[in-house]
Amino acid sequence: MKLQIIGVIFMLLFVPLFSVSNVNRDVSQLPVQSAADDISQVAIETTTTEFVDNSRRVGKITMDDYADFISAIEADGDSYDVEIEVLENIGKKSEGTQGTVIGENVYYSIYTSEIVETLEKDGTYIMKEGDILTVRVKNSNKTSSQQNQNDFVAQHTGIVTSNGSL
């Protein structure tokens, strides 16, 4: 009985204070908006990771895979800027070695525009084992709760593990 009375007194005193404190609060700061942003970010991170891991495992990016990736990340109604970079392994920089190549790998960067152009022309962008694939996703229309966050929603990088083929 005492517990019920204390509970009622607590509710009478403090519940009105909680509701009054939310009256002038900006809707963008409500936890629901932040939770929705968190759910979207996790979904985009997962989709990005799956896209990169699948592409590097098979050694290629197909137009269908790319289109499915873009559709999946934009399914929440937001729009995103997608940057794709392939560091193409063009060999080793070496100094006078005998029989074996010793030195650091040399990479040539290929960026989104060239990759998408190849996808549109050939339907497939071929990579080879040792290349490095990076995909970055940035939100191009931030919600008010995202204003103070960094630009990247998701980023994933991996080394290509097999040579792609048509």
Report on the architecture of this protein:
There is one protein chain. The chain has about 170 residues and is α+β, with helices and mostly antiparallel strands. It has one domain (about 30-160). The protein is about 40% helix and about 30% strand. The chain has four helices and six strands. It has helices spanning about 1-20, 30-60, 65-75, 110-120; strands spanning about 60, 80-95, 105-110, 125, 130-140, 150-160. A hairpin with an 8-residue loop joins strand 2 (about 80-95) and strand 3 (about 105-110). Helix 2 packs antiparallel against helix 3 (about 65-75). The longest helix has 28 residues, at about 30-60. The radius of gyration is 25 Å and the shape is elongated. The model is unreliable at about 20-25 and about 25-30 (pLDDT under 50).
Notable characteristics:
four-stranded antiparallel sheet; 4 helices; alpha+beta
